[in-house]
Amino acid sequence: MINNFKLGIKMFRYGTGLVGMMVCCGIFLALALIYNSLGTGGSFGDFFLMMVPIYPVQIIYTISISSFIASSPVKKRMQTSVPATICCFNMIAIYLVNALCKGIMLAGHPENIGAACAELLSLAGFGVIFMLYIGLAYKYFAVSIVMGIIVYFYTINRLNGVNTAWPHIFENSAGSFALALLIGLVCIVIGGFGQYGLALLVYKVPISKYALSAVVRKEM
Predict the structure, then answer these.
(1) Are 54 and 134 spatial neighbours (Cβ–Cβ below 8 Å)?
(2) CA atoms within 13 A on the CB side of 215
(3) Cβ neighbour number for residue 91 with a 10 Å cutoff
(4) C-alpha of 85 from chain center
(5) Is 0.85 surpassed by the pTM of this model?
C-alpha cells in the first residue's frame, strides 16, 4: 500500500492540470471547513469534502493512458491499486481533519457528542459511496449518473432527518466519539478495498473518454 502511494505521488509530476487540481481541492476543502465550522455544513459540507479525493484520482487515470505508461509494467497498478490507495489515504486524511474540527467544537459543547458521532458516520458513508463510484466511473461513465442519484437521495434523506435517531445510539462521552471515529475509519478502509476490487473487475474495459477532462479527450 505504501509503495502504491509513493508511486502515485511520484507520477503526479507527469499529469496535466496539476495546478488546477490543487486549486480545486483547496477550494472544496476550504468550503467544507467553513460550512462545518459554522455548524451548517451537514450534507453539503460532506459533499465538498468528498470532492477533494476525486481530483488526484483523475490525474492518476489521465497519466495511466499516456504512451509511456501504456507500455510500462505499472499500467495495471495505475488503474487499480494506485488510485484506490491515493483515494483511501486522501479520504482518511480529510475524515481525520473533519473529526479534529468536530472535536475542537465539542470542547465547548460536550452535549453535542451524539450528533457529532452521527455526522462522522454519515461522512464515512459518503466516503464509501464515492470510493465505489470512483472504482467504476472511469470505465463506465454512465454509472456516475446512477451513483449520483444514490448520493442525491442519501443527501436528501439526511436533510430530511431520516437519521436523526443516530445520535441516540451514542452516549455523550469521549469514548463514544472515539468509537464513532474508529468505525468510520474502518468503513473507509473497507471502501478502499471495495474500490480496488471493482477496479480489478473492470480493468480490461477501456477508460471512458467522457470521464476525463476535455483536454485529455482530444488526445484520445
Answers:
(1) yes
(2) 8
(3) 29
(4) 11
(5) no
